[in-house]
Amino acid sequence: MRHFGHLAEDVRGRLFLEQPRPFTARSEPAVLATALGGTLYSPATRPALAADIRKQAARGVVSMVLCLEDAIADHEVGAGERNLVEQLNDLVKDFTDSTQDHPLLFIRVRSAAQIPDLARRLGPAVDLLSGFVLPKFTPGNGPGYLAALAAAEAATGRRLYAMPVLESPELAHLETRREQLYGIAELLAGHRERVLAVRLGVTDLCSAYGLRRSPDLTAYDVALVAGVIGDVVNVLGRADGTGHTVTGPVWEYFPMQERMFKPQLRRTPFAASGGTALATGEEVRRRIIEHDLDGLIREVELDRANGLLGKTCIHPSHVPAVHALSVVTHEEYCDAQDILRVDRGGGGVLRSAYTNKMNEARPHRAWAERVLLRAEVFGVARADVSFAELLAACLCG
């Protein structure tokens, strides 16, 4: 797999100073956690699930979750399991006979018992799986989930990762949040090698209070949600070796709706880009606004500022925007390299290569290391390439 591998070589050469590097499902966990990018969720009941996975892989999706939980009705679980087993067994033949890599695939279950049962029923198709998504994860149900995952690993001989979803009412409620987070942190610390990323279920957190944000607002505009995100990162996202990758919440909107506020996407970056061979900057801006992606773009930027990486996506149109915004800018790359170079020399402070900020080696070291890991996975944009041009290539390429 390779981010932006679906783009033509000449397009990548024009966009990237350092191109994204290939990775596989057996790459190091830190690489895979960074590479998740926009993780596309799909109901396990879709009749053309195998075809959907092939199509999305060809369009640049590198991680997908096949959902047996909230995405389907209670009475559909049995049919969803059967469809999942059948579709993945069809898919495994396709990828066995080709040089194309399949996306990182995860199954979102409803109960711990489903994990070893599905691993057994999948047979050879279990080789397509990278792991399981564990919904409504708490210190109470977590041990059962992780024991079931360990049993599935032992039975299949395959490394299977856990992606717990933090979305329980106990996490939303102030009086139980601290106990929940400390309990989850202690539990995950004992299974570090098995936990690929921690996901945030903001929709469920909002439901505990009857809330739903509009497409004109981000998760960070909802004070209750912003508080939970901050506390999750505080406890589970630390850069001292004890933390985990925490992924951004889902963006719920994709059809064009009547807008209450003006679009949040400024014209300047698109006008400055001068357009591309695929589309003008203004045309890309128009398409983004029509698909309600301007709010998503703002939220991804806020995710990054608040320590989150990657995002849950429920529509294919969201994935290109997440990936384009994950590319390391030339300025970030220069800063990160300078910081690590100075740190190796004993620390200190220097003016950035762009002469617009202070780079202090030791306080910024963890940030710089994360930037260079993201650069390995998503690449580094050329100095004259804006996010508008990256989006244009992703949307139109």
CATH topology of the largest domain: TIM Barrel
Shape: globular
Secondary-structure element order, N to C: HEHEHEHEHEHEHHEHHEHHHEHHEEHEH
Can you identify the CATH superfamily of the largest domain?
Phosphoenolpyruvate-binding domains
Catalogue the unreliable spans: 274-278
Portion in helices = 40-55%
CATH architecture verdict of the largest domain: Alpha-Beta Barrel
Q: What's the average pLDDT? A: 90
Q: How much strand?
A: 5-15%
What CATH first level of the largest domain would be assigned?
Answer: Alpha Beta
* Major sheet strand order: 7-6-5-4-3-2-9-8
How many helical elements? 17
Total domains, how many?
Answer: 2
**Alpha-carbon Rg, integer:** 21 Å
Give the beta-strand count: 12
For the record, give the distance between the C-alpha atoms at the N and C termini, rounded to a whole number: 18 Å
Oligomeric description of these chains: single chain
Q: Main attributes?
A:
single chain, 397 residues, alpha/beta, TIM Barrel, 2 domains, 8-stranded parallel beta sheet, two-stranded antiparallel ribbon, 12 strands
Q: Can you describe what's shown?
A:
With 397 residues, this protein is α/β, with parallel strands linked by helices. The chain folds into 2 domains: 22-254 and 291-324, TIM Barrel (Alpha-Beta Barrel); 330-378, no CATH class. Helix content is 46%, strand content 12%. It contains 17 helices and 12 strands. The chain has helices at residues 9-15, 29-35, 49-58, 77-96, 114-122, 142-156, 169-172, 174-189, 202-207, 223-236, 268-273, 281-290, 293-305, 318-324, 330-344, 365-378, 387-396, and strands at residues 16-18, 38-43, 63-67, 104-108, 129-134, 161-166, 199-200, 248-251, 311-313, 349-351, 358-360, 380-381. Strands 7-6-5-4-3-2-9-8 form an 8-stranded parallel β-sheet. The chain has a two-stranded antiparallel ribbon with strand order 1-12. Helix 2 (29-35) packs across helix 16, helix 3 (49-58) packs across helix 4 and helix 8 (174-189) packs parallel to helix 10 (223-236). Mean pLDDT is 90; it is low at 274-278. This is ATP/GTP-binding protein. GO terms for molecular function: catalytic activity; magnesium ion binding. Its cofactor is Mg(2+). InterPro entries: C-C_Bond_Lyase-like, Pyrv/PenolPyrv_kinase-like_dom, Pyrv_kinase-like_dom_sf. Keywords: Magnesium, Metal-binding.
